[in-house]
Design a protein that fits this description.
This protein has about 110 residues and is mainly alpha-helical. It is built from 3 helices and 2 strands, in the order ββααα.
Length: about 110
């Protein structure tokens, strides 16, 4: 499991922040979207293997659409005016000290 920022907005993979899904989505709606996302990702894999550029573009557009619906891309789902640090190196964000504290805790 990847560490999630204290505010629940991001998780960290290899020192990079990735936006979490909108936590206010009802569980059943979120699960349906995740199912759609997995289907779209399989379509991307199939399109890559086939070499069909049109099919690949369509599959990637489906992935993008669902990620926006989930709140992982596009407009942020929080409303306090905080900036979006999606796909930023955590060391270059206000989450840097928090992330360093995780590393220090794990080193003990």
């Amino acid at each position: 499991m990847y560490p999630t920022t204290p505010d629940g907005r991001y998780f960290v993979v290899n020192g990079k922040l990735w936006r979490c899904s909108n936590p206010s989505l009802p569980a059943d709606v979120r699960q349906n979207m995740v199912n759609e996302l997995m289907t779209a990702r399989r379509e991307v894999k199939t399109a890559n293997a086939s070499g069909d550029d049109r099919q690949l573009k369509s599959a990637r557009a489906k992935v993008q659409k669902v990620k926006v619906e989930l709140g992982e891309r596009g407009p942020v789902w929080w409303d306090d005016g905080s900036p979006d640090f999606n796909q930023c190196q955590v060391k270059n964000t206000p989450y840097s000290a928090w992330h360093k504290s995780l590393a220090a805790t794990q080193a003990r």
